[in-house]
Amino acid sequence: MILREKKVARAGIPTASMGDVAFLILIFFLTSTVFTKDKGLKMLLPERTEEQEQVKVKPENIVTVAINPAGEVKIKTVDLDRILVLEEYGEIKSIVEERLLARDTLLVVSLRPSKDAPYDNMIQALDQIKLAKTTSSDGRELRVTKISLIPTSEEQ
User: Fold this and answer.
1) Adjacency order of strands within the sheet including 108-113
2) What is the spatial distance between Cα 75 and Cα 10, in angstroms, rounded to a whole number?
3) Which of 15, 91, 92, 155 is least enclosed by beta carbons within 10 angstroms?
4) Which 3 state secondary structure label does DSSP give 4?
5) Residue 38 phi, psi dihedral angles, 5° rounding
């Protein structure tokens, strides 16, 4: 009896359809991936008009919050002129709340960061302004509704 030699079966991966599988996977990930847009700061801006309309605001109704390149905040009102460092940013809220009680809905906060000021400092100051709220004597909740954001190039 003669024994036949066993043929050794080689293990292998068929590569004939490898390109098809690669393209199917590529198409799957291209269609299922969602690209998000950077949203930035969400602020409601007024509509642009053809004529340059100047709004006159009394100086006693304005709180100016200026941020210099070193990150210091200068708060200026008619009767207050104060410089705050980063650790004192929480006082922005209390100063704005005091002015809200005195000026009611007429208050305008002008945020003026220097173009060289740290971005984080501007965001912290803006957050403190937006957090400011108080209750008037007749029970209404008062918040800052008018914020002017004007970047400046000069040091404050």
Assistant:
1) 81-84, 73-76, 62-67, 108-113, 147-149
2) 81
3) 15
4) coil
5) -70, 130
Q: How far apart are the first and last CA of the chain?
A: 106
- pLDDT score recorded for residue 156: 47
For 60-149, the fitting CATH number among 3.40.640.10, 3.40.50.1240, 3.40.1190.20, 3.30.420.270 is 3.30.420.270
pLDDT of residue 10: 81
Domain boundaries, the chain: 60-149
Quote the pTM value: 0.63
> Minimal CA–CA distance to 110: which of 145, 71, 149?
149
The DSSP bridge partners found for residue 142 are 134
